[in-house]
Amino acid sequence: xxxxxxxxxxxxxxxxxxxxxxxxxxxxxxxxxxxxxxxxxxxxxxxxxxxxxxxxxxxxxxxxxxxxxxxxxxxxxxxxxxxxxxxxxxxxxxxxxxxxxxxxxxxxxxxxxxxxxxxxxxxxxxxxxxxxxxxxxxxxxxxxxxxxxxxxxxxxxxxxxxxxxxxxxxxxxxxxxxxxxxxxxxxxxxxxxxxxxxxxxxxxxxxxxxxxxxxxxxxxxxxxxxxxxxxxxxxxxxxxxxxxxxxxxxxxxxxxxxxxxxxxxxxxxxxxxxxxxxxxxxxxxxxxxxxxxx
Amino acid sequence: xxxxxxxxxxxxxxxxxxxxxxxxxxxxxxxxxxxxxxxxxxxxxxxxxxxxxxxxxxxxxxxxxxxxxxxxxxxxxxxxxxxxxxxxxxxxxxxxxxxxxxxxxxxxxxxxxxxxxxxxxxxxxxxxxxxxxxxxxxxxxxxxxxxxxxxxxxxxxxxxxxxxxxxxxxxxxxxxxxxxxxxxxxxxxxxxxxxxxxxxxxxxxxxxxxxxxxxxxxxxxxxxxxxxxxxxxxxxxxxxxxxxxxxxxxxxxxxxxxxxxxxxx
Lengths: 294, 265
What we know:
Chain A is an all-alpha fold.
């Protein structure tokens, strides 16, 4: 498409003259153009929580500052548990390890139980979502079972496995699986009729339909289930480990309580919270990545 | 007239619990190869049901559909459907949406590079090759429908089924797409069965217009031949007496003799 070139040279009016001013050209500046926006964005995200954190710690200090207080104040906590905070990686054998190793042991249990729950949960969710009879048969049972608190499964699994390690993993599995099943089933049931019709016209086979239509279409729901599941697993592992003992953050907390090391417990809680947050974000990130790659 | 596609005494009754509703009663239609047929009627007259039966997505309660003398009882690429709301898969690119169909239909008969060329050929046909790497969310409604048409054409269907393909588009985009479909029909000589509720669209595109009576128990009320020469040009037709006569015949059927049930009430 061609436009007639516009003629800017208007004939000069007699007796008048115009003066042209050149505006100074903006110089490219890495600091101003690249670094500054990122810094501003980071500051708006980071400053408010940091300020609130400082306020909360100050309130905590005021509330627990007196020498008769039952709970440690922040300053007392740091002086009591400095070794724990400063050296997360030490290992003196047995249960005398840094917090990293306890968290690591807990994460291993969660990873195993959770991966099993994800595989079984998605498979069962697809079954319930696809088959009206599977849904009628299994859904009521699942709705009852999912309300059973995680720890209530522990005695039964101890009786079945006769060992703490597989029992803890089973508790994670049984805790995480319900939201995965239910969300996957909803996702599969909500696949638009149009997509099914496209698959039928093209004559996709069962496996092709599963991989090319069902999984991508239900992925947002599945990842919602996976995110709820990972949160619940992390909730359950601390409680389960308190009971089964051994290396793990749950037993570490229980052991600290028995030794009246309240400051150590608080440090462990901070770790538990941060790791739980990271797990949630990790699954969310994988979900976003999968949505983009699919 | 040879029967390429035969719709033979179809009744469709839906049963939900104790309630039954008769949607179609005794619908018969014979379509020749290369014909462009429109089915028009008020909403709720069962025209989409009829299309779904031809597509094989729905089993008729009685009667059946024959394509080249063979009975249709399941969906297949020989009766490709362009759905009303494009129904592209949002997680696939434009190219991959078409490729999904091409790979499935021609896996055994064409090589990988032939299939690639065929996908590109069909995207070219609907002028969408430039957007091959875009996702459906990134293109306009008219473009999505073009891709939907490309996907259907790429299956080399014996009959192309269009389910109100332009219904969700604005008037200008719709006119563009109608011209494209006419061009493609001219070029490839497909047999087309199109559902529409737009009188001008029906007259402009069709060789014959099938007018449905109102439901329940809708059936074919009248069939109108549109004896206009092809290629047809939208602008020339506006004043063409044959066009005007056909158009008013359809309007007369729809609004004088078979008004929409809600309006008649």
